[in-house]
Amino acid sequence: MNNIHKAILAIIALAVSTVALVAKPIPGPKGGRILTTDAPHAEFFVENDRSVVVSLYDKDMKPLPVSGQVVFATAEAKTGKVKLDFIEKNGALVSTVPLPEGDDYNVVVQIRDNVTARPKNYRVLFHDEVCDECKRAEYACICDDAGKEHAHDKK
Ligand SMILES: [Zn+2]
Fold it and tell me: What are the sequence ranges of the domains in the chain?
């Protein structure tokens, strides 16, 4: 019994440390949320008019031009799902329609490296408000949920 308990504790400790490694968010240069964990990175950013901008970056977070990537998004709003198409504009991919009314809903962003590539799906919980702690849009908040270190402490 004792050994089983030790084993369970070890598994929990391992799981916790794995989460801590993965959970460190990268702040999006435009103030948006970085969807990716590996380069090329994609940033999800919502403009004032609620259109969605997806920008691409290399591993050093230098902007990358759009090079055939195909982006779609589905906003799972409470009023119904809305599909967003994206077109290239000013070196990024911009949705042709704005996000639907309201907030606190998921937006599923589908990115393909090119027309024939397998799609990769990223889920963003869209919140309209600004985070009190990091002053970023809530959907792009980089505050550590564990409360270890906040962005505003670094200023
Ligand atoms: Zn925050």
Answer: 26-154
How far is the centre of ligand 1, averaged over its atoms, from the C-alpha of 135 (Å)? 6
Task: Answer positive or negative: Cα dihedral of 117, 99, 108, 142.
Answer: positive
Q: Compute the distance from residue 12 Cα to the ligand 1 centre, in Å.
A: 27
- Report pLDDT digits (tens) over 85-127: 999 999 999 999 999 999 999 999 999 999 999 999 999 999 9
Tell me, in angstroms, the distance from the centre of ligand 1 to residue 37's CA.
Answer: 19
In angstroms, rounded to a whole number, what is the distance separating the alpha carbons of residues 80 and 151?
A: 35
Cα(150) to ligand 1 centroid in Å equals 8
**Ligand 1 centroid distance, CA of 141 (Å):** 4
Looking at the chain, the whole-number percentage of residues with pLDDT higher than 90 is: 75
Architecture per CATH, 26-154: Sandwich (2.60)
Nearest-angstrom CA–CA distance, 121 and 73: 9
User: Which residues of the chain fall below pLDDT 50?
Assistant: 146-155
Q: What is the pTM of this model?
A: 0.79
